[in-house]
């Protein structure tokens, strides 16, 4: 198993993140590489969000996006907005290390908990989350309304 490093996202990562998005969910093709680049620019100046990159041999092999959020019924939390690891690099500790780094950042920000959503079919991911101490709390339906 080759070593990988974790670092903060850079604008130059946009194309490789776009490709990872495609691998994870082909429907993401509608969000272009240029739009990914613009979103990275925006997130880099937003102190409530962080995107961490897992890199091996100068290739982005995974990333995690965390966002601080406050609710009227709980302490400050971090929402794991997205965690994607390339298929060829799964089961090698990449996702676990990305989660660990995000958890460390969350603690430094004063967050009291982490929360994530995962599709019911992603059983390997569920095992990773449980191994890292996350507890399954409930099933729910997601509703989306497109706004113009």
From TrEMBL:
Coiled coil: none
Superkingdom field: Bacteria
Pfam family, one: Acetyltransf_1
CDD domains: NAT_SF
Chain ranges of the N-acetyltransferase domain: 4-148
KW Transcription regulation (keyword) present: no
Record keywords: Acyltransferase, Transferase
Stored PANTHER family: ACETYLTRANSFERASE, N-ACETYLTRANSFERASE YODP
Name the record gives this protein: Ribosomal protein S18 acetylase RimI-like enzyme
Species assigned in the record: Paenibacillus hunanensis
